[in-house]
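Morning!

This is the sequence you dropped in the shared folder:
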Amino acid sequence: MCPDTQPKMSRCVLLAVAVLGLSGAELGARQAADPLATHLLQDDTCADGISDDACGLSLRQLRGEKAPAPAESHREIHPAFLELGDAANSSVDESSGPPELTFYVYRAKNNENYEDTNVNMANLAGVMWYLHNEVVGHCPRKFGIVRVLRYKITMRNTPELKRSTGKNFARLCHFDSGACTGPASSISDFKFGFVVGCDKPSFHQAAYPKATWFSFPGSCPEVPFQRKTEWCKQDQKGGNHQCNAGEPWSKTCTWRLEPAGEVTLDELTHNKNFDNTCRNTGFFEYRDGCDCGQGTNFWHGKRDFHAGLRRMSWLKTLFQRNYPSMPTDLGSEPECEWGDPQR
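The structure's back. Tokens below.
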């Protein structure tokens, strides 16, 4: 939230004007009616004076961790956060805007099942990047991750996004417990509709070619799962609201999801009952210091391009083996225009 200082308040006012398209007089009237209006778009994580490290991507929803109980201090949603106008549900002009895309995404999860909306997911390279950097360097595996789930995504972002940015994707929204925590640039993209975002992590940190993460906004995207009220869900319907096959694309229908199988980490790594093994031996599947594993060579070479390709190929082979009636690929993966320029 913005503290009651003139420099920060001015920043908030400018942000509200830019995102909501309000004139100074309109913003003043709104603030007088509701003093919270100037605070709605300030990104707590990336506030002035906080290091860039504090603005890093929260991958709780990519990894599938169960959402914790919300803090009492979390700010409430407000109608001014998303002001899509009367055309919020108008269908997309089929002659303009980004193309319709169909592709697979993946999400690392523990054994629990919960919502697959207002989350970050990844392409196959992206989920391998995540597992290698966040999960397998811990004993037991971090966050209780035991499987990789695959989904078929069909999507089309709005012409307004394409006209304004020249890109097919919005900027990645960092979801944490079902709430978009920023950065502010990704939140501002919601003025174009509930658009799907993307980003690319650094290839130099883990060599998984074209690793990409995506954000899939659902209802009330700034509010944690436990605090999404029915009023909010009706007011801010999200990008997958009544977005079944055959429905026209619109600002509230930008993506739809279909489950497409799962592979366990035991299958992937050949390390059966790894949690028991690591507790009994102290071995880790991967240690960054030696760039190697203990009792397994599956994760050797995090920055080895060819080893990364072999691991990706094996995960793809397992999905093909487990689900032979499903296609291995769905055509070319979409290109993300954001993220590491060295990709």
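Headline: The beta strands are 101-109, 119-122, 147-155, 170-171, 175-176, 179-180, 197-199, 213-216, 255-264.

More detail when I'm at my desk.
O.
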